[in-house]
Amino acid sequence: MKIFESIINHKINTITADELLKYANQFNIAITRSQAKKIAEYLRGKNINIFDDLQRAHLVREIAKAAGPQTAREVNKLFAELVKK
């Protein structure tokens, strides 16, 4: 399971705005290019572990600041699906 977690965390910590837009579209999460850019810039180099509840909660709060609370809720739903054990 740890390798799966490492792969997901690596992808989140290195995601680009274009990749984020692609995934948002794939999972029906509405974000603008500007929001995707802000979120990707925030994530880059942070080494966030979405499998850690506190880190994930902090990340969702930061996404809410950049993209709005509705988008943050949708992203949190996606994270919840990814971290199910």
Automatic annotation (TrEMBL):
InterPro entries: DUF2624. It comes from the Bacteria. This is DUF2624 domain-containing protein.
